[in-house]
Amino acid sequence: MKKIPSLLVLVSVISAFSCTASARADFQSVSPPLLTAGMFRLESERSYKLSLQMSLGILNGHTAVERSRSLENLARFRKELARQARSDKVNKAFNRADRALNDQVESLPTLSAKTAAALYDVNEDILIKMNFLSFALESESNDNAARVTGLALRQASLAQRMAKIVLLRSMDKSMYARQGLQVDLAQSRIEFINGMSLLAEQAQDDKALKQRLDLALQQWSFYDKALSSNGFKPEDLRNISSTSDRIAQMMVEIVRLGYGLPPDPSIIAER
Question: How far apart are CA 148 and CA 146, in angstroms?
Fold first, then answer.
């Protein structure tokens, strides 16, 4: 995988997943639009998932802190994308995603079993609009790392999507047999597996990238087993919630490498 000559920013990427201050110090103040859009999409998914966790009482205080950070990151990425120069096509895609996000941000603090399903539909609508934004940016980008950046961040988003479906079905039992959710979960799993195969192709000649991808695959093996459970116990829901974030974190590390930033030894040590 080719690397970009200059060290471009990944604003708050690592802080979003509670990494060390030394890792955050590597980032500057402006990030490539494609990366910002990918993180914008990821945090829109994650803020909803974390709200489900809070309502289910999963990892309590930790989840509340992480949701606050997620919402702060959403606001930051939103402002950054709003001030970056873009084509008319990208600008329209951003405006649609930006408007769609308002309903979710306003409703998340009061999410409950009664409103969770409706907010899922809102979140899915946001996801579709943010996908258009990312695809538009990727198609117009001259960024050498654009393909891997877009792919890795889509993988991070898919990990969140699978978790939010399981959590929603656990919160609202009437949603368990909903055909649309079953299709969404199965489709996300297939897309994630295919994405890992594509990343593996990119990693063939890059030892550091391959190392992180191998770690992500280990997490995926554990995650996939938990997702396939016939009945979800509280421990299963905790594992799904936390593993979805660990996979997202590893995907962000892959993007970090793509922009020429040095590997983070703490990530390897933790796993």
Answer: 6
Structure tokens at 36: 């910002």
DSSP state of 263: P
Contacts of residue 65, defined as CB under 8 A and 6 or more positions apart, other chains included, come to: none
Distance (Å) of CA 166 to CA 52, 117, 182:
10, 12, 10
Q: What average pLDDT is seen over the chain?
A: 82
- What residue type is assigned to position 188 of the chain? S
pLDDT one-digit tens code per residue, 30-39: 567 888 898 8
Distance between CA atoms of residues 79 and 97, nearest Å: 13
The structure tokens listed for 268 are 């390897």
pTM: 0.83
Identity of residue 220: W
Name which of 82, 8, 70 is nearest 39 in CA terms.
Answer: 70
Distance CA 42, CA 13 (A): 10
208-257 pLDDT tens trace:
788 888 889 999 999 998 888 877 888 899 999 999 999 998 898 888 77
Q: Maximum CA pair distance of the chain?
A: 52
- Going from N- to C-terminal start, the domains of the chain cover 15-270
| Residue 28: Cβ within 10 Å count | 12
How many angstroms separate the Cα of 23 from the Cα of each of 189, 194, 245?
30, 30, 17
